[in-house]
Amino acid sequence: MIIAIDGPAAAGKGTLAKRLATHFDLAFLDTGRLYRAVGYGILQAGGDPNDPKIAVAAARALDPANVDTGDLYTEKVAEAASVVAAIGDVRKELLSFQRNFAHNPPGGKIGAVLDGRDIASVVCPDATHKLFVTASAEVRAKRRFKELQENGVESTYAAVLADIEQRDQRDRTRKVSPLKAVDAHVIDTSGKTPDAVFQEALDLIEGDRST
Ligand code: DC
Hints:
By secondary structure, the protein is an alpha/beta fold.
């Protein structure tokens, strides 16, 4: 069983993916962490994420099974991740780890949930279930802003919205593996609780199984 979950930043993919993984006892991979780790490594070394040579070398040097170092969830790292994710050769470096995780999940699990931008379209076109989780940019920016406030990070709603819109634009319009709903059930999480989203996903998965 492979569940592919794609969608834009802060749409609620991660929350849903973790709950589905627990529910079905599947391994879970947040593929955004891989791109964040590449961006983080470059920033730490004082490099420029826009430089494809530097970005590809950083992706090659990454141990994708071990990306737990450093704070990957800052706006700076998110920006660097979005930049390196638009470079085709960076994506190629990270592809086999993701495919292997899906098809040979760790811990003896019978399947995996992967969340990202190109899981259904590129990483696992053969996924058993494909979900595209989205919400309006305003709703996503509000959620992200609240999260930042709770973590004591200074920011403004307008700045968070601008960041999200810029990243969306880059993720959707890049030449390689752009974010798009491919042959997936679309779940709009705007105005829905995590419980309601989880239930909607379960119903869709059940529906897939009965067809
Ligand atoms: O989901 P996230 O915010 O952690 O992702 C960070 C960046 O990585 C985001 O700009 C898009 C990119 N990404 C991608 O291009 N493909 C994936 N499968 C996952 C993330």
